[in-house]
Structures are given as structure tokens and as C-alpha cells.
Amino acid sequence: MSETSVEVLVIGGGVIGSSLAYHIARQGRTVLVVEQAEGATAPAASWASAGGVRRQGRHPAEAMLASEAIARWPTLEAELEADMHYRQGGNLLVAETEAEAEQLASFVHEQQANGFTDVTLLTAAEVRNLVPEIAMQVTAASYSPIDGQADPIRTTRAFAAAAQRHGAAYWNATAALALHVQGRRVVGVQTARGLVLAEQVVLAAGAWSNQLTDTLGIHLPMHLKAFQMLRSSSATGQTLRPVVSAVNRLLSLKQLPDGAFLLGGGWLGEPTADHRSYQLKQQAIDGNWAAACAIYPPVAQQQIARAWCGLEAESIDEIPFVGPLSGWEGLFLAVGFSGHGFAIAPAIGHNLAELLIGNPTPELAGLSPARIATLHRH
Ligand SMILES: Cc1cc2nc3c(=O)[nH]c(=O)nc-3n(C[C@H](O)[C@H](O)[C@H](O)COP(=O)(O)OP(=O)(O)OC[C@H]3O[C@@H](n4cnc5c(N)ncnc54)[C@H](O)[C@@H]3O)c2cc1C
Hints:
FAD/NAD(P)-binding domain, D-Amino Acid Oxidase, Chain A, domain 2, 10 helices, binds flavin-adenine dinucleotide
């Protein structure tokens, strides 16, 4: 077995690891991505993802990252030289009662306070103007026109290809087996192809990240979740432009370029005991479908064509851990994306690559793993 040496080793070639590798390679640094399968294959999150590109409703700790990412998405296909099925169709959060409409009015104030100045409150008539076939009971909506959607598999592969064009190396079908340490410093990774020495190691292994930190005796405060998605048969015609969700239902609904509806919103399956797969739950499938039909009746004219889950680590405060892991020199985390890492992946890659060269940006401050010590106390 050979021994390799790089400046940065990234564990995991999903959308986060690949965005990061792209940004590191563009800095002219040597970077190797070690990926146990291939990026964006089942049941990884970047394979399963709904691909929503949403700033509206973001946690304040992600606000600056979301703004940076949203500004970048419209030109990302040209930058990466790939068709990622990106569409800036907006994001619509609907209310179904007067009480929910009042909730949305304060929500819109909060969005504006976070700097999301495009977000406005729409009347029922304005919602119907935007989405004529929206359910009759919709009373109001919060609307962000600059949000949208993209294809997560195409996006992951586009970042990986662009990273390689800029000189990044990818070892697919190669598992990282253990972090290699000297004293309190991580100096490399034992992989299925041998030991790789690295000045910096970034853990971006999604749902499986704790298997690597466990080799240091550290279990990050994250839970494994199997987020469910449904895809319908293809409707003729593009009737739905924005991504639609609802104040009081678990729902995220969008229409794909081929006319199929894509349904998600937080319904859960069950990860298998070996964390390699998942089991669907009929109740969750029925619930997700019913929520979509109730909000956008044209969905009811279709059938469910496919159901699947993606495995993702959800941190206990539901925002990711991005940055150095206290107590371990040389080790950085980009984990715990909690069901909403896709939209901000371009900004995570950029800001983390800057941090690695000693240029920390305020965008990542709220996601620092330093908060883990506090979280453990709750
Ligand atoms: C069903 C679903 C819907 C979602 N919808 C949205 C959405 O609409 N909008 C949004 O912004 N976000 C969404 N998300 C979240 C988003 O997709 C994820 O946050 C994002 O894809 C995480 O990317 P990742 O690279 O961290 O993880 P992953 O894509 O899971 O990548 C981790 C990679 O690490 C590899 N790996 C693991 N262990 C090892 C090892 N030991 N050695 C080598 N490689 C290893 C895996 O094979 C995998 O490829 C959704 C997630 C799911 C599951």
C-alpha cells in the first residue's frame, strides 16, 4: 500500500465535500477527496435531496451564508459549465386560516430583519395570481421571488467535475477507515487505499461522520434521520413555478422540468440498523401525498411514481457544525446539515476554503463546532 501526501484531504464527495474541493482547488492547493461510493449515490443526502434553493425561513446563523449562496446560484451553471436544472421560480409559504396569515405577517417582518428584503406578504388574490390552481382555502402567503430549485445529483457532479478540472483528485470507491493522529493533531487518514498524510483533514461524510470522529473517542451531537421524498407521474405542462410549503403542514412541493411533482417537507422513514439503507413508512407516504393534494389540487390527478429516503445527520440544534474541532489540530468539520445543506453548499465551500487558509469569515461564525460544549450541557 502506498502513502500519499496532500495539503487538504476531504472525507466525503457529496455536494458539501465537492463544493469545498472545488473552492480549495481554485486556490491552487492540493486536495484529495476520498469517497466510499461516488458522490450523490443512494442513500446519501445529495442523492436524495429535494434540491430546494431557499433563503426564506433560514435560521439567523445561516442568514449570511444563505444570502451569499442565493446571489451566486443564478450564475453557478455558467461558472461550473454544467446544466444543473436550476430555476429561480421563487418560494411560497402559504397560510390556510386568518390566524396563520397573522403568523405570516410577523414571519415576514423577521425575514426583513434578517436582511431578506425580497420577502413580501401576498394576499389571497396575489397568491392565486401567481399560482392559479392553489387550494381555495389559502388566505395569504409569504413569497421570496429570488429562491428556487436545482437538481442535487447534477449539482454535486458539476462541483466534482469542476474541482477535478482545477486539479483536485478524487478517490471514489475508497472508504476513509480512521483518522490518523499524532498526539492531539490529526495528520492524515487511513483509507482503503492506504495512509494519506494531510496538513488539514475536513470531515464531510454526512450521515456517517460520527463513524470517523468515534475513532477519536468523540461522538458529535447529531441524530441520523431518513428524510422521505415522493415523485409523482408526470403532469403535462408546467403549472407550478415556485416551491410551495405551508405554515401548518409538513410539505415542500415543486414541479420538475419533466412535469413530475416532487414532494417532501420533513416526513420520515426509518434508517436501517447498519446505517446503510432505510425503510419507507406507509403512513408518512400517505401523509405527504395528502398534504400536497390539499394545498395544490392538480397533484391529485397524478399517481405516486417513486418513494425514497436519504440519510442525513441532524444536529441537536438543527444547524450544521462547520469549522475546526476544538482540541484536535488539523481537523475541520462540515457536518450536520440537518435537511437544508443543499442551498447553501456553494457558500459553505467558499467560506470554509477561506477559513482553511487562515481567513475566517463572519458567514461561518454561527456554525462553529465550538458550541458543542454548550449543547452537551442541555
Ligand atoms: C430527502 C432530503 C431532502 C432534502 N431537501 C433539501 C432541500 O430542498 N434544500 C436544501 O437546501 N437541502 C435539502 N436537503 C439537505 C441536503 O441535501 C444535504 O444537507 C446535503 O446534500 C448534504 O450534503 P453532504 O455532502 O454533507 O452529505 P452526503 O451527500 O450524504 O455526502 C456524504 C458523503 O460522504 C461519503 N462518506 C461517508 N462516510 C465515508 C467514509 N468513511 N469514507 C469515504 N466517504 C464517506 C458518503 O458516501 C457520501 O457520498 C435534503 C436532504 C434530504 C435527505
